[in-house]
## 1
Amino acid sequence: MEVVVIGAGLAGVTSAWYLRQAGCKVTVIDRQPGPGLETSYANGGQISVSHPEPWANPSAPSTILRWLGRPDAPLLFRWRADAAQWKWAFQFLRECLPARTHRNTRAIASLALYSRRELQALREQTGIQYEAGQGGILHLFEKKSELKHLPAKQAQLEALGIRARVLTPGETLELEPSLAFMESRLAGALHGVDDECGNAHLFCQALSTKAAEAGVDFQFNIRLQGFDRSTEGLHGVRIRDSEGRLGMLRADACIVAAGSYSARLVAPLGLKLPVYPVKGYSITVPILAPERAPHLSLTDESRRIVCSRLGNRLRIAGTAELNGYDLRPNALRSATLLHWLDEHFPDLTDTGAAEHWCGLRPATPSNIPLIGRTSVPGLYLNTGHGSLGWTLACGSGKALADLVTGQPPEPMFPFSG
């Protein structure tokens, strides 16, 4: 079977790897000069299985209302004359209903657990290096009022098969001594025991190299011009290279893994995907004092900010901004991340050498990614992962490969088609 994958980020590269492992002839195209250069480039670095609850949950509407009018709010709506944005927002509110949240949480948890297992197997099989860190994620709480929910949260996670521990401030500091400076204001933590972190961009580069060695054809600086389609289904894609030359790639199946741009690419086929771009920000800073740096990944639950150690650097990421496909950076959003770093780890890093980044997360209203068949024969999707693209990458790619090759995927998940 010949397969074309559109997109060389986490979703596209993992899809290509597992399709090739299944015996397919695979070509990957991307408009960038290399793999993992858009949404996968500088995300928060967390593989956060312990956070399966979607953004759309019963507490979200009241939380968002409290944030309205705050330019530094964790979630910022920039309302536009954009029907797709308004439709997405109303669908998001519908997904906040308790029954829908419960259903979506179970689906995300099933795929996340499967994905972590596939990542670990892939790491063992290939020896791939990507500044991986094990030991879990610490979800930090500074308000005692927030702690009353933790026993129920722990029980919910354990019921889903996800290990977690509720920690006192003393237990938290024993596990992560770098947090000693905030002892007076730390109320407690939830430790996602089996979570990990790692550099998603390095992973994309390393896995694409392994995939190329296995026979996957990567073509960069390529723009999709359209799909070759008949009444019988899809036959391939029309492309244009960096020198303007047109070409055709024949395929028995085509995978759209182009992040937030997936919806635009398939719109000419009459498909309307509930995927909207949510802009996220990060800063990456060199560590000056490694002995004082955290060794576990951290999540500040009240500010929705994450911190991951990637080798000799810290990655601080967070905030979500709904502003269409606008990729212009908002200096205030980056300043919020720098302020958090200065407040929590003063004099630990060289902030003057910070690498600032923002990218578009492809989010569905339910936070359930679109993985599987479309109504167009031969066309498949692997997109819409929102903030969980790194967490769900390997599981999504493996399940997608199973669907394309006619095998039943393992996770209990609402695959498309």
Note: Residues 98-126 form the longest helix (29 residues).
## 2
Amino acid sequence: MKLSRKLAIAVDIGTTTVAASLVDLATGRRLSVAGGLNPQRQFGADVIARLQAATASEENLRSMQRLINVELQRLVAGLLHDAGASMADLAQLAMAGNPAMEHLLLGMPVTSLAFPPYRPLFKTGRSITTRELGWADDIPLYIFPLPGGFVGGDLVAFLYGSSAEPASDRRPSHVARLFLDIGTNGEIALAAGGKLYATSVAAGPALEGGNLACGMAALPGAISRVVIEGEKVTLTTIAGAAPAGICGSAVIDTVAELLVARVIDQTGRLLSPAEIPSNLANRLTTVAGEPAFVLYRDAERLVYLSQHDIRQVQLAKGAIVAGIEILLGRAGLRHVDLQEVLLTGSFGAELAPHSLKNVGIFAEKMVKIARFIREGALTGVEKALCAPKGMAAVEQLAQSLQVIPLSGTPAFEKLFLAQLDFPKL
């Protein structure tokens, strides 16, 4: 049956995954949601690889633009079909992503992102139509602003959805709130003293299940939680399917649990079976000449965490913690001064705060004040679509951000190296 009300579609274009939702503009209610892998991954798992590919040839740039737009049209068509609606019912689209994803969406040159000064070609939001992207239909489209560096529209959307507006926030200005959007491009913001500071770090795809021996996105069959009690390993998978791989939330869980069980040492080394006094030693094996811990094995597949995987987690952890420390230092704060930590990302499940503490991403107090927001960026895009003058508020928020660039700065490099080891448990 044809819907008479006007609809809108919100999109979060992630490096690893793409999420889209259909909302009713009259009620602000989400009608349905859909997602999939970003098809640009054939050009590389992370932002840097795709930027390199896009600067290598115009053909690569056009291919990546075409791939993401085809995927977006597929998601939009599916959402409308499931709601019994058509493009005629669609009044507006809005999309947010990191600077690289938004440039590739538009087919814009990415040289200014791939090389110093690492700046986007636009900072304010862009109001265009889908036809300008090569779509058959001509629907108004708003693309979120890019405040600077690798601080993108996805962080702006997350902040807006979380009411992080220093000029009009209901919360007192002395309340310090930390925002973490942990993904391939880790984006961090700090609201403190009536100001908003933001930065980004190259966390890599490991925390989204990418670039790992058995990594996968948060799809059915992905191991999403891991608990080790004594010598028993308990796995939870998405949709209850047979384990097929490991997504980001389980990567953090596994490393945290293995640290507690003394299977991994502070330096990140997987111990040998002879060094492990429990029967967990039986799960240690060698795959392609590299130590690995087996999570699941059947006649068809082997799902494990390799030594290389653990190193990828260490690199991500070091970058994220260094970024947090830089922002706290800029605001003249310490971890104990934080009143709230809001966390989002495409992990596949809600990250356990104690796991983040055990791997060294969270300080002790942060565990108690952390709150996970599922689909943080997507929720913010929805809010902007449905709120009166939502896009104007988004622009104001983006302009209020004080972007702190970290690339190549001695302070960041020193903190990053100091944070590579895991904490002593």
Note: Residues 7-160 form a domain with the Nucleotidyltransferase; domain 5 fold (CATH 3.30.420.480).
## 3
Amino acid sequence: MTIIGIIAEFNPFHNGHKYLLEQADGLKIVAISGNFMQRGEPAIVDKWTRVQMALENGADLVVELPFLVSVQAADFFGQGAVDILARLGIDSLAFGTEEVLDYQKIADLYAERGQEMENFVDNLPDSLSYPQKTQAMWKEFAALDFSGDTPNHVLALAYTKAVAGRNIKLHPIKRQGAGYHSVDKDVNFASATAIRQHQSDQDFLEHFMPSVDLFENACKVSWEDYFPFLRYQILSNSDLSTIYQVNQEMAVRIKNAIKTAQSVEELVELVATKRYTKARVRRLLTYILVQARESDLPEGIHVLGFTEKGRQHLKALKEQVNLVSRIGKEPWDAITQKADQIYQLGHSSISEQNFGRVPIRIESNEVY
């Protein structure tokens, strides 16, 4: 049986994600972001809700991306996720993208000339943001010309770099529906952005989301629920440059901006520059919120849920891979677990995210 890996956030899970799972044939292993997202924001609903939605709609096994993999720029996000999926034995990586290209050919190019390509990026002027440098690299070496408005394509290229030199085939699937950031309701497939924007419109949700009851019954949060905590962390920390990836320049900008900013979005607007994108600033603010510092990634892989087919695969892997199914006194990953505790501050009804929790198991469409 083909073992297919999928890297996802499912923020939240919608019909487009179900379509992606339906297009992938084989045992489907999803590496999912936990409670904080790649672009530096809290998940609208907690990881367990999103895992259950995925399992009810085609996923066979779901594992968690550690915080310092999940909240990263595209290249580091892709590399960390692929490393985890490779340990779980995938032989194919499926992903949605705005542009279906010969990604395998691009991966072969990077396997052959990767060092040369990275040297090219390193020699570009610092006035460019990292995404701009990466775009310039792909244009120079692969004749790819694209804008920053195709985030799935950007991630797809990050995945090609991550699988280069590995025995993993790439399976691009054309992204359906409106653009990634579209809030349009008159579409065949609504975006996650649209669903977050229209989360109080029950008819809209029922039309574009499977397992909609799970979403409707879950506690919803946004960045603004955490702004008082973020503001406290910024004001009370005498040296923000001790936080992961926060340099002295950004520490000064953030300290100055928090004096007048009345919301997270206003803070992002005040801090972002041409060199420091809004997504990068949001990631830095997420690190500050969590008080994240440089740390080794966990050796174990945290299992969040599985079907019977997924359980059989885990059983076969048990002797080869360090699998964590229950977090007790000993932490799985201290930073991820701290991030989960802070995530719970966003709503008084968010349940415990780690201790005593066991993987969600689904058989015959029943949840155990």
Note: The longest strand covers residues 27-33.
## 4
Amino acid sequence: MGKITFVEHSGTAHIVEIAEGQSLMQTAIDNGVPGIDADCGGACACGTCHVILHSDWVQAAGSINADEQGMLGLTPEKTDASRLACQITVSEALDGLIVHLPEFQM
């Protein structure tokens, strides 16, 4: 089974197993990754599951829709590699994915 690495702003890494078909947000919550609040429960209605993808993984995670882009526009640490974890579906194709958690969510 594949792995995904969540890296806290402090540098602490959390390596979790891929749960095929789940959102990246749910995967983080199910594995106790700190910094993913998911206040809206995955409805793309807040920015509390903001993650920053490692540059090697931006395209593999899929494209951003208008709703996600709007929510990301409200986050102070938005980068070109920013995504909402609730909008990324986990699959074995993401084996090795590295995501960083922004400081303001900690």
Note: The mean pLDDT is 94.
